[in-house]
Amino acid sequence: MTTGTDELRDPIAKSWQRAAMAGLTPGSALDHLTYSDVDTSGPLLSAASEVLDELNDQLQGTMFSTLLVDREGRIAQRWCGDRGGRRAFDNLGLDVGASLLEEAVGTNALGTVLETRTSITINGGEHFAVPLRRFSCYGHPIFHPTTRRIEGVLDITALMEEASPLLPPLVARAVADIEQRLLDRSRVSDKQLLAAFQAAGTRRRAVVAIGQDLFMSNQAASDLLGSTDVALLRMLVGDLHDNADVDLTLESGLEVRVEASRIGGARGGALLHVEPRRELRVAPHAVRPDLAHAPVLVSGPPGSGRSTEARRASEVQPVTVLTAASALLDGAEAWARNFGALVRAGQGTVCVDGIDLLPDDLVDLVASHLAERRAPRLVLVCGPVDALSGRAAALAGECTERRLLAPLSSRPHELPELVRRMLADLGADPSLHFTPGALRALSAQPWPGNLRELRAVVDHVVRHQRTGAVVLDQLPEAYRAQEPTKRLAPIEHAERAVIVEALREHDGNKVKAAQSLGISRTTLYAKMRALRITVY
């Protein structure tokens, strides 16, 4: 029996490592199974039921069992060909609703397939959890043919030491049939949704139709909604079981009421009417009187655009910038004199760039003015808030208005616009542009240097190419690798950005983040896993 990762095949060894990093141990991995409700009328089970009935008929009386999990790793259907298999599953608590995610129970042919998005055979001793080592199984992912989103996993398992080589083609054929039925059913529901959209379509009222493979909006909705708004509406529809009215704030700041109506039952989509609740009354650069002296904190890792964001936050003119570097170069006394003069002038905005790098006596000086809440207004710039300590942390804590900038690696959806701006700033020829393939490769990079590193890459390209399309091979060699992030579609990038922002706003509290997004915590966890959200 396998006991160490040195003896395991590469994909199994990596899975064991992920399980260990999740805090699991082989002997107790099944001790705390979690259960949740499964949508028995959803598109996956509706498409799979006939296929599984036929497959199970073929396996009746054998030692084989079939398991189907949804995209959140929950057992959606369990069938056993004999009493031995049924008894074994019952003893382990593996029944409908149980979570088989790799992070919950370790290596298995369902959770591991969800994690890797590829089919896999797992023989007895290759299971991470000791109680599962009696089983051998083969799992195959089920993708929607249009969206390529993973819908679930089909598995055949048996109480044996090694899985039969006949399982892969048998399961693959069943999965192909399920995927075809998913496609056929989505076409029917899309027709119903299209008819409802056409019936509701009015030029004056914002109308949106969202289905599994369909998105439609009239001109009024297009004028209201940004890409992150669309992503939020998609999440709302994904968690919608009946008609509902939901109040949201769009990325523009406009408060709206969304009237959502299910079309075509649980397998269909939804028709959304978006009605503004009030118009924005504050001009983009206007400052409310009660906020004129309120301090602003701009926080983020180096190179994430803190200085640019600080300039945007400095809405009260004139703006003067005092840096921590000047305190080092010119001395603390000179810095204190300059700050004192600005305070006595009593006007505009003073941007203090690098409060986490200032000596304590200068931090105390800034804090004393901040406590008075009078002109000039303060905009404070620092590194990530969770890395602050001492007086700098206390000073940052006085700022109720915060602009928290995420690392560039968690904002891949912004790359096309950032690259376009950088090309313009560098004076590149208007015809010079990055191809989708090049942008996908850039989206996959870790970007430890954030915007500065990206600008260096764009500058390299501008110096080596004057016009035309920038393809993958014309990027610096170190930036050509394409990681799994490339699988995300544009709408998924936008969806990822909405979730990351909600998590940051609520300091990582997933319950509050899910409530603010209008989705369940289970849905939030599933989306975080699917979109590879680990840093926020």
Automatic annotation (TrEMBL):
Transcription regulation listed as a keyword: yes
InterPro entries assigned to the protein according to its UniProt record, in alphabetical order: AAA_lid_NorR, GAF-like_dom_sf, Homeodomain-like_sf, HTH_Fis, P-loop_NTPase, Sigma_54_int, Sigma_54_int_dom_CS
Keywords attached to this entry: ATP-binding, Nucleotide-binding, Transcription, Transcription regulation
GO molecular function, one term: ATP binding
GO biological process: regulation of DNA-templated transcription
PANTHER family to which the protein is assigned, alphabetical: SIGMA FACTOR, TRANSCRIPTIONAL REGULATORY PROTEIN
Protein name: Transcriptional regulator of acetoin/glycerol metabolism
Sigma-54 factor interaction domain boundaries: 405-463
